[in-house]
Each structure stands twice: as C-alpha cells, then as structure tokens.
Write a structure and sequence with these properties.
122 residues; mainly alpha; 2 domains; 7 helices; TPR-like_helical_dom_sf; repeat; TPR_rpt; TPR repeat; TPR_2
Length: 122
C-alpha cells in the first residue's frame, strides 16, 4: 500500500470493518497491517486491529495494541473494556477488573457497568 492514496486507506479501513463484522479477523488484519505501517499514528485503525487480534484469539497482540491505543487515548472507554475482555480471556481477572471499572467510570453504559461488578468490594 505504499502508493496508496488517502482514499484507498479509507476503503481498506472500511473493508476491514466489514470483514470483522463477518467474523474474518485474519482478512481484516491483512488489510490493516499495511495501513498501520503507512500511518502508525492512526488510533482508529489500531483499535480495529486490536479487535481483529482479539477475534483471532491472538491475545498478546490484542493486549499490546489496546495498550497502545490507551497510551494515546487514556479516556477511551471502549479500549479499556476491550482490554479488560482480553485480559479476562487470558485468565488475568484482577487486571481485567481494573479496566472494566475504568471503562464503566468513563462511560456508564449498562454492559460496562455490569462487567465492572461494582457491587463487590475490590
């Protein structure tokens, strides 16, 4: 994608979204990797790639990508929630709970609040 235009990057991003919706994370990764190589600062593409890693059960790669997003956007509730789900899936429940609670504090959506389990003491 080195000769790609901004328009082709947008098309690749949208196509990767559709592939994720169709449960094809590996296909999405093939489209996102060159886009991120060309634009490493693109947080939206990184978040989409993190989701693709998660769906492909590449938990360590998903964790690293979600953490990178959170370094840039520490108030991104969805990234905290998704990182928590990744950590939970990896059996790291205490770390996951911290990020579930951060997500719920940043955005009190019912699913975030339920995952945060505020009714239990830490």
């Amino acid at each position: 994608m080195s000769d790609a235009t901004p328009e082709t990057h947008v098309i690749a991003y949208r196509a990767a979204e559709h592939l994720l919706d169709a449960r094809d994370p590996r296909g999405a990764l093939k489209l996102l990797d060159p886009l991120i190589t060309a634009h490493p600062e693109n947080t939206a593409a990184r978040l989409l790639r993190a989701r693709a890693f998660f769906l492909a059960a590449q938990l360590r790669s998903a964790e690293l990508e979600f953490q990178l997003v959170l370094e840039r956007e520490p108030d991104n509730a969805f990234a905290h929630f998704a990182l928590a789900r990744t950590l939970e899936r990896a059996g790291r429940d205490a770390e996951a709970l911290r990020h579930f609670r951060l997500a719920a504090a940043l955005d009190p959506r019912p699913d975030f609040v339920a995952a945060a389990r505020f009714e239990r003491a830490p």
